[in-house]
Structures
1.
Amino acid sequence: MPTDDVEPEAQPATSTEDAPNVFRTDDGAQDGLAKCARCGATEISLNVATGNLRCGFCRFEWATDNAIEAFNLNGDISKLSGILVGSGSSDIVPSTEEILTFKCSACGAEVVIDTNNSTQARCHWCRNTLSMNQQVPNGAVPDMILPFTVEKSTAVEKIASFVGKRKFFAHPKFRAEFNAENVMGVYLPYMVVDINAHARMTGEGEHQTRSYTVKVGDKQEQRYDADLFNVVREFDIQVNDLTVESSSDRLDQNTSQNSNNIINTIMPFDVENSVRYDSNYLAGFTSERRDSNLDQLSPIAHTQAEDITRHRVNDSLAFYDRGVRWTAEEVDVRGQRWVSAYLPVWLYSYQQRNSSGKTFLHYVAVNARTGETMGSVPLHQSKLLLVAGVVQLVGTVIGLVLVAVGI
Ligand SMILES: [Zn+2]
Ligand SMILES: [Zn+2]
């Protein structure tokens, strides 16, 4: 019998267990000319009132499939194992061109789309709108999109009212320049993540049995007796639709230069109503490209899953009325599913420049699904100080009066 002396082949650097399993989300998607199914026109855009696509010529309306159903994202999270990613969430290839050339399928002319700014362009010969729906590895085409349903006029009102309430303290330059009509509709890139994890937490918990006071010198001191328990909690945890920002600009929480955390305060979005991506939803809006990969975003999602775990376990600790101190916390992520999404936001931004030339980006944001509004407004420092001073003065006067009447 021959013996096999051949050395075993070296293991590949990444084991297949860690490599993400990619499922295609742009099957059947076509680049180029998208036509109205009823009249064949190519003038297609989002009707914000209904969240549907609408033909600008015959007014026919339709919606693309619900993404959660189309990609079977409803599946039992507790059965998830390994890493599953939509093709629009795959790693970005740095060398991928941002300029793509299309052949217009109406007249044959060559048309250029700059995917940095848009995934749509008009053919300059026949004026047809050309759309890019197939995924190129540059983050420009996500797996799914949540259409705008809050109309611009509503967003303008909400922003005007938000600023109106803060006008007294606002910087005069901001007040003079404020015009809510300058609001822009932007699709911001996010990753929507489902996580299946197993958690094990061990620690010590104290349950109080007696409380009493003792005399120490000439002072009374409160003492207590407690039983000490070893506490172990082990359980499975499923996290559904965690949303993580996937634009590095948004992840940059540098509060000396911008007020990015505002976007987090207008969460959540009803991501379960997202539809399959179609660049016709982008007509009339701007969008920001995803530029972060799973490697960068995983730690953020996992930290959030750990926070959720810690929060979840609190419900079962009521008995330990003097608290639990965890000595070990393990959250073992067994399965995760990632899809990239565009989420809709109305933005009013204002670049503040102070006397030293430094700039700070303020903005007011409206969740274009729920209408939730939050923002930051540049303050008029001297007015703020004056008011603070008056409040303090009034406080002092009241204090003096109270003292005078002997209260
Ligand atoms: Zn039509
Ligand atoms: Zn053409």
2.
Amino acid sequence: MNHRPDSDGYEDGNALAGPLSEIFAVDLTSALGRCANCGVTEPVARLHVYTRAPGLVARCPHCAHVTLRMVRSPDDAWLDMSGTVALRIPLTSG
Ligand SMILES: [Zn+2]
């Protein structure tokens, strides 16, 4: 999938695959997340990810609410998912 920055300065949620793989054993880009602001459920891969902020900032593609923030230090990862109500994570393939 293409996750290069577009003219609005964001990438799609596939930009989160590498950083999140350090924390979770499953690929979260295929998980379904529900936005805490508008209630729409979308795959994480469809989020708008801003990579030029301190850390990564992912916004809902429908209402632009911040759904996920991740900051990495040399020893820790900070993950704020307060903008996501629920995350449905597929655990089997196919
Ligand atoms: Zn939303």
